[in-house]
# Entry
Amino acid sequence: MSGLEVGILFTFILFGLLALRIPIGVAMLTVGLAGYVALAGWSPALNYLKSAGYDKYSNYTFSIVPLFLLMGEFATNAGLSRLLFRSANSWLGHRRGGIAMATIGGSAGFGAIAGSSLATAATMAQVALPEMRRHGYSGALATGSIAAGGTLGILIPPSIVLVIYAILTEQNIAKLFAAAFIPGLMAALGYMIAIAIFVRRNPGDSSVRRRASYRERWRDLLQVWPVVAIFIVVIGGIYAGLFTPTEAAAVGAFSTGLLALLKGRLNWRIATRSLLNTAQTTGMIFLIVLGADLINIFLALSRMPQELAQAISNTNLAPLLVLVAILVIHLLLGMIMDSLSMILLTIPIFFPVVMSLDFGFTPDETAIWFGILTLVVVEVGLITPPVGLNVYIINSYARDVPMLETFRGVTPFLISDMIRIAILLAFPSITLAAVWWFF
Amino acid sequence: MRLFRTVERALLVITQAIALLGGAVLITLTLITVYSVVGRAVSRNFGDWPLLSWWGPLRGDFELIEMGTAIAIFAFLPYTQMVRGNVLVDFFTARASPRAKAGLAIPANLLFSALAILISWRMIIGTFEQLTSSFNQTTMLLRLPLWWGYMPATFFICLLALVCFFTVWRSSREAFGDGEPVSS
# Structure
């Protein structure tokens, strides 16, 4: 069997296991190990397992992941989402659909200090949902905007998905964070435009809140200073060369923790809960990381990625067409899988393919552009039917809104996403500008 | 019934305690890093001030971070499995009944148990090799013996294996017996 055939066979086995509700990390471990043994025999595989886990986890860069998760937990407990939402609301709330726009604004702000989408969606649901329902917003618009706003959590740096991508492809995390910035702001703006169009076409879905005075607006805006300060220290510190991304994550976790403590919101019970939540998510991610590690060894042994890259370049397809095909595959996978598992599974296969294509950039630029495009595409998977994890999270907070309503509310945001992906594909310089600017 | 509840409660308490231990390690790492970052800034800018001259970046801090991260992550794995925190693809079986889902969880947990046992066995061997190795396996700067990290990690993986076996029991009860299926 050629490497390509072996790879395809094992991909089918993997999806078979996934369909049988084997946890993603377990399925990847099984297939990776089986492939390793099949291609190299038992003894190297057994030998590898002696140190595989420890070697993989004792990684300086990987420590960013639990630290950012902890930071998000502290930020939630410090009540920062409430401050952000209130401030955005006093500036935008009086417009038609304005509270939904404020939800997007608040989510974008929270995304700047949290690296995960589910955390962003969950915390915004608690503050924004009651407000929207009180002002007579329809369930579709209310839940849709929170689900979409949640995706800003990973789009706007810091972003856990980007950290994983950077480790997998050996790219510079700081450059990727810089590159994600403009697309992240585009997303927030695009979502607000989507809301404006949606409420114009469906006036019954929203109402108008009273206009806040400028005094209230500035007062509320000033209250979000801790968020701004933490963002500037964490992200600014990386670019000023003050510290590494790992140190930035530690400083961020420390300062949000301190903030929660000073606000009197961090008692023993809440601290325990925060740590356990961090533990659960970290454990979930790193089981998949270990599985992906074994899959990678197996893929390297099978030479499947190289052969795939070779086969694709032999077809002489236009590079852009191949890239679009890869993005479409991600979009489809995103309908059934969560973003991190997907990145860990697909990047080792597709990254060599993309790097073998000629887009007229340096390899670093291609890697960054592809990384951001992938990030945007997998984020769409969080709100697409039938699985859309964000939608499920919101649904647990808004039991009275049927899932179908939420998916109706998500549609305008999906359209906005598609337009943004097309723009980012057509104009790579939007993504790369910040990289050229900073480095 | 009584036995199951007792084991369940005991394992939950143990895995929570271990996860919190990992959390404490994580917080310690945070504090070490902040100390080091501030120390570096202090020594760069105020290195000649008499009261601050002792403060500098911690030597070999990244070695502590690497070892601590590994220990923390291993400490989190049993808890995640205990609270059904490992993600799976729900797409193909979304319409199955809770009992059917619990039934499918039996082979899944059995498979995980087998893998956890295999990895535990290999890591125990790996730790003994670290302990008995003729040339000292240590970190570069601080000369910390690597088994300091291997030993707790191996212990936590063994606990994971134990939890996996328990989850097989739990899902069989939910599928066939008197256990109430929990949708995860």
